[in-house]
Amino acid sequence: MRKPIKQLILFTLALVIAAGFGGAGIAVAGGTPQTLRVYNAAEYIDRTILADFEKAFGVQVIYEEFDSNEEMYDRIARDPKAFDVLIPSDYAIDRLIQEGLLEKIDPAKIPNMAFIAPEYLNPAYDPANEYVVPYMVGTLGILYNKRMVPVPVDSWAALWDTQYRGRIWMWDSMRDVVGLALKMHGFSVNSNDDAELAQAKASLLSQRQLVRYESELIRDSMIADEGTLALVYSGDAKTAVDQNPNLAYVIPREGSNKWVDGFVIVKGTERLEAAHNFINFMCSPHIAIRNMTATGYTSPVFIVWEEFASNPIMFPSAEELARCEPFMYNKEATQKYMGIWSEVR
């Protein structure tokens, strides 16, 4: 199967290059290249791809990064015209759709959507795929050092183990932290129940003196054997395990979050054509391979999966995924999560 897949990728590349030459004339008056403003999570792309897109389409990409979906939303809420294309997580996309902040996508302008696995299309918050094109998928779990932890980790409770005080790293993200605490107690990550949320809050407050809240430092610290356990996303776990064989990643038995991050176009942008071209370009198989290689995350472009299929972090089992659920947006619940977070952090 490898040869036909690679031939298809080369064929797709040829189409993209041809399309690029066709779009290279995009510019504004005076010959100045058109700009496209893209807002993505940190360390979440092979940056050389941006230069390739610019060269192919004659569009200058102004690229910025955010550390959390909440930071992304706050920026857009303050300045709705700051960006043209966003790459948030599913629950943040859900909110942006509900609040009318997104343009509808023209599927005729994104033919490479044909390469995206059907299971990642038509999510509950966008059942007709009018607003989002999937970018990367993954899970939330625990990365741990097998030399420092005597038995395999299989539960969220490991993040409350007092013997690892000061060597437990928690990802500094409200939605992930509150979600895992809910899951540990057997509840949905999307719970809006006051009694369930009270249990989650009590657990997180009891854990506070055991852990360090970080974001960018976690992966590298675990690679350097500076931490024992950490709350991480699957892509960071894959990169860390590749560099330090003493590390292992687990989706706890209680279940977790399975997420899909996606491309969306900001309402009112004057760069619709460039935005569609960018999203289509990013869904090309050869681009998907480069991004998966660079980031460790899993592209939903299924025809490239064979290149990475042996990796259990990128491709968890059906049983593992069955224990997981997506984050969804609920305004009332989000206010409660924010209240918990203000006490925990």
Notes on the structure:
This protein has 345 residues and is of the alpha/beta class. It has two domains: 2-137 and 259-307, Periplasmic binding protein-like II (D-Maltodextrin-Binding Protein, domain 2), CATH 3.40.190; 138-257 and 317-344, D-Maltodextrin-Binding Protein, domain 2, CATH 3.40.190. Helix content is 39%, strand content 17%. The chain has helices spanning 2-23, 48-57, 69-78, 90-98, 174-184, 194-207, 217-223, 234-243, 272-282, 285-295, 318-322, 331-344, and strands at 34-41, 59-66, 85-86, 102-103, 133-145, 168-171, 211-214, 229-233, 247-250, 258-266. Strands 1, 2, 3, 4, 5, 6, 7, 8, 9 and 10 form a ten-stranded mixed β-sheet that branches. α2 links the parallel β1 and β2 (59-66). α5 packs across α6 and α7 packs parallel to α8 (234-243). The longest helix has 22 residues, at 2-23.
